[in-house]
Amino acid sequence: MTVSQDKISAILPDSPGHQFVMYGDSCSGIPGALHERTFASVNAVVRRLAPQPEFILFPGDEIIGLTPDPAALRAQWAHWFDVEMAWLDRGAIPMWHTTGNHTAYDTMSEDVFRDVLRLPDNGPDDQRGLSYWVRRGDLLMVFVHTLWTGLGGEGHVETAWLRSTLARHADARHRIVLGHHPVHPVNGFSGRYQREIGPEYADAFWQILVDSHVLAYVCSHILAYDVQVHRGVLQICTAGAGTAHRMPDEVEYLHCIQAALDRDGLRYQVLDTNGVARERLRWPPPFADDSTGWRGVAAGQSDAVLTGPIDTGSIVEISLSGRTAAQAWAPEQTLFTAHAPEAIAPIWLGLRGPKQTLTLIVGKKPGRSPSYWLGTDLPVGREFDVRVAFYPDMGPGGILYRHHGEAAWTSCASATATGIEGIHWPRAWSVGHGQHGPQDRPFKGSALSVGARLAVA
User: Fold this and answer.
1) pLDDT tens across 333-390, in order?
2) What pLDDT score does 383 carry?
3) Are the CB atoms for 257 and 270 separated by under 8 Å?
4) Does pTM top 0.85 for this prediction?
5) Domain spans of the chain?
6) Fold of 295-456
7) What CATH superfamily is the domain 8-283?
8) Sheet of 18-22, strands arranged across
9) Which DSSP string corresponds to 287-341?
10) How far is it, in rounded angstroms, from Cα 328 to Cα 354?
């Protein structure tokens, strides 16, 4: 079918599956206010999708809220649904929501949220209408309340009901959990309870997702688009539905995510207010069989195995194996670096600190401080076999690691809003030492072996 130029072609499942939209944080509901206009610009893009989504997921902060007046709060909700979202036939395209810090910030606002939204009444007894689940064929979606007043408010979330709900739906092929607050920091913006769920919940919460083979945790709150993966579970942050100020302004943009989910996994496009797909993702990534496509990188300095830009649509995987030294060595130890004589090496991968933490250092611009990605620790006196992947489609979350033999990838921790995209491979590579020769940050262990391969996303 030919789609007119005014329409935006939606990504569709390649097999029986689901086609949907995710966006959050419009903070609107006030007639004539700035966020009414910005929210309308994002809605205009959703309305151009062809075909239209089967359903919409909105992980919180629909309205500006944060008022002590229940009548004013209800008026904002009425404007949001009856005016700003009047274009949506919610009978044909259901829309499911999570609570947010602008909408469920005390017991009064929780009661208004329950009454206005009338969401499925299948959550915990004391959180009915706040936490709930939805089943659509082989897809289970669980919506959690990440600021429950019964536990202490913002950043506090119940986990026992989440675990039991996922267990009761173990037959679902696809599982997505949604909540307002991230679990893992986004773009380096971190703060206990206020920016992520509290530390006493985070590990147990994520362990439940891993144990239950959840595909993704979808959140908003931090005004950004971001994706990262931890132990095989994605965290997708979409908070671009209209809140005018961005963090950081030069990188983030208003957006919605249009997604398709089928037996091969998840594919989506991140659309800005012009309808342009600024970013895309395919998950799981299309890495080849572990035994194929590898090119060995010679010890010492050699010509680059890969050339050209590190850009979206491609994946580079580096294999690192060897044995760490018998005693810990805190100074930097080079495993692999790519460099040119005219600048400090833009790509350095090695061990740093007394715990010998796997670290990637990326210098994008001469004279500017580099960015750091921190991965796993490599204990002293032990053999290691680690894979590191550069997946530019994931932005800052796209520096991944896993131990050989493990299937689940984890994003390295970082405090940057951009990834490795746009870097060009320098023409010289070194294994076991830095760009200045054997005495420059040498690897103190033994039997170091490095390989590289390229895949197309």
Assistant:
1) 999 999 988 778 899 999 999 999 999 999 988 788 999 999 999 999 999 999 999 9
2) 98
3) yes
4) yes
5) 8-283, 295-456
6) Jelly Rolls (2.60.120)
7) Metallo-dependent phosphatases (3.60.21.10)
8) 95-97, 55-58, 18-22, 256-262, 265-271, 277-283
9) PPPTTSS-EEE-SEEEE-SS-SB--TTEEEEEEEEEE--SS---S-EEEEEEEET
10) 6
